[in-house]
Prior knowledge:
Elements: H1 3-53, E1 65-69, H2 75-85, H3 91-100, E2 109-113, H4 119-128, E3 137-140, H5 147-157, H6 162-169, H7 172-181, E4 207-210, H8 217-232, H9 236-240, H10 246-259, H11 263-278, H12 286-293, H13 329-336, E5 345-348, E6 354-357, H14 360-370
Antiparallel strand pairs: 1-2, 3-4, 5-6
Helix pairs in contact: 2-3, 5-6, 10-13, 11-13
Enzyme class: lyase
Site (Important for catalytic activity): 259
Pfam families: YceG (PF02618)
Amino acid sequence: MSKEKKNGNFRDNLIARSEEAKTVRKIVSIIIIALLLILIIGGLSGFLYVKSALKPVDPDSKEEIKVTIPIGSSSSEIASLLEEKGVIKNALIFRFYIKFNNESDFQAGKYTFTPDMELDEIIESLKNGKIMAEAVHTITIPEGKTIEQMAGIFAKKMSFSKEDFLKKVDDKDYISQLIKRYPSILSEEILNTEIRHPLEGYLFASTYDFYEEKPSVEAVINEMLKKTDAVLSDYLNEISETDYSVHEAVTFASVVEKEASTAKQRKKIAGVFYNRIEEGMKLQTDPTVLYALGKHKDRVLYEDLEVESPYNTYYAEGLPIGPIGSYAESSLKAVLNPEQSDFLYFLHDGEGNIYYAKTLDEHNENKQKYID
Length: 372
């Protein structure tokens, strides 16, 4: 074969291979583009699907959907039940959503949802046991009430007795369980044997809705502790910056609560108590005497002041051993941000007015002028 012919064949083969390579590259490029398109379209579709699944089932519907969450239900079981009832669009997406947002501790109970609810609303309801239905019992606990008074209020409307309530709140084993459940607000301090009721001051005064015909004492206590936890959590950092523990701050707030009726009065009286403590004086506040006596009296007598009790601030130094009742949030605020003054004494007249004094002589003058 001539040299020219060989060269011609080589060129032809080279051209053929080049064309083949081009064809392969085109095919590979088409495949890659197709795969990318599939990935993009799939990703976009997936994104749109997830985005849609996170939205309400029907934003325009107020239809009531009854859902019963059994005790001990897992997040997976709750998600499936909500999807089955038409409360959410997709159980799997709901599970990923609560996992991503670290949501848990859903409450069992009978709920009423609507298709227009956002996922966050549904989650909040499940976490707080907020059952969107008409309450069977609505009970208001006024501020300043003691546990024994609360027990009487609940006994009038609930299926349990006052004695049942008091027995449970004084059960040390039960209290130990609650300390583990609410470690940020409850401590071993409340197990002191000299404390009359461990949960005194820790059951927040508020209005409570109950959706069961016969809620247990434990259910009632849990609702009240959840409220206390919600309120106190906003002040834990401030409390940690003081010289007081949470227990002492709550105790202080309960004393201020008994001595004043307005936020302004509470701040001023809290300031007086701080001044007395700094001067090494006893608080000498009558409400602690009444709590120590365990009974209400219209007038505290001199002989009452001598009762030997860790609650009696005429007898004991500093704060009483524990709270003497519930308190308003403004009383806690007053303890954490008292009004600065030089007053060391105050007294009430019979018309709700409070008179302050810097010295004992001024205080005695106020007594003669407004009390005697």
